[in-house]
Amino acid sequence: MKVVACSPSSEFRTTIDSLVSESFFASPDFADTWRTMGGTPYYHVIQDAGEIRAVLPGVTFGRGPFRRLYAMPNGCYGGLFVRDANRSETAEVAGALMGALSSVGFMKCFIFDFGRSLESYLPSTVEVRQCRTTLVDISPTWQPPNKKLRQQIHKAERIGLHIEPFCADSHLQQFLSLVKSTSERIGPPRRMRYTESFFRDLAALALKDRRLRWLWCEHDGKPVSSNIFVVEANSLLHWQAYFNTDFSHLQAAKYIPFAMARAAAQEGITQLNLGATPENAPGVEYFKEKWGGRPCHYNCYVRESFFGKLL
User: Fold this and answer.
1) Burial code of 10-19, b = ≥16 C-beta within 10 A, e = fewer?
2) If DSSP codes are grouped into helix, strand and coil, which group holds residue 197?
3) What is the pTM of this model?
């Protein structure tokens, strides 16, 4: 087997699109947004007898001995996308891929494999780190089981919160202020994780890809909450949320995910994914329990060079 590293705009674009068609995070258009963060979309295509058997989508950062590969960045789901392969073929493909990643010389490789596509085919040189999220079964008539949460959602419904699709031209500057205040509230002052250019590109992508859904809420002309959702296969992932504590009484942080989940269920989406749960975060776990979900564990595979382990 042969492993070829290429850009999303390469001759393999049509095949890559077909292989990753069910994943927004793995899509070339989403990978392109990371250019604003200094990343380079980087697709490993695995060929056998001239035919593409699988692809690993990713983004690289850094140069020379400091190059790092993320599939995908910041915990966004990646993994190996294989075409019509049985178990033995998948093992061979995974082996070829891992061999290629070793030979390229990345300082660090991170693969967030929500679908566990590589779980059974890893060499001993790869470290497995467990991640957690919460999945909630939803339907068009679904209600959270927690009584207080239902009351808070109904309060927001009575108030009549103004929720609309995010528009960068109208909302971006208020949104950036909301991001900054949220970041400062949860820890010491630090640089925002994402740049203004990243969010601008993300907003543009939301206009052409229905799998990315960005909702904005204002009250009396002031920002209340911003919520970004991603449709991955049959799940609605609550990816990013920012809110203004001055308007906590409006209950937008509860109402918007609920309303989005109910709307998604009308389209046949069956799960609400409440996002990654960090370690030692009992408040986050308590909040998620109110939605009636169940814990879901998945893996992040890490491969570090000798140099990478020192840093």
Assistant:
1) eebeebbeeb
2) helix
3) 0.93
